[in-house]
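DM from R.C. (forwarded with permission)

"hey, sorry to bug you on a friday — could you get me a structure for this? deadline for the figure draft is monday and I only need the backbone to look sensible"
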Amino acid sequence: MKTLRRDARAKPVENESLRRDWFERPPESEILALALAASLRQLRLLAGLTLGELETRTRIHRPILSRIENGHNVPRLDTIYRYCAGVGFHPVHALRCVDDLQEELFG
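My reply, with the result:
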């Protein structure tokens, strides 16, 4: 097993303003991913479904659905389609929210 030499370890950020910006402001893509997660969850709640019911309809495992809705996983496009088919909405409803937010925040 190879070990890291002491000088090969990551060095702390010396510029405090860069460090603060990195931790306080999520990247644009993360903001949009969280908007997608919130939009998907809202569609499920509007449909009156639990995660277990959605799991049965979509055959996407409940822990994965939970991670998607909490913004920990960004779903692929085919997963978004399966999710939306399971809740009975067209995918454009989930993606429109993200598109509107992107336009509002980033022009």
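R.C.: lifesaver. The radius of gyration is 19 Å.
me: no worries. Residues 28-106 form a domain with the 434 Repressor (Amino-terminal Domain) fold (CATH 1.10.260.40).
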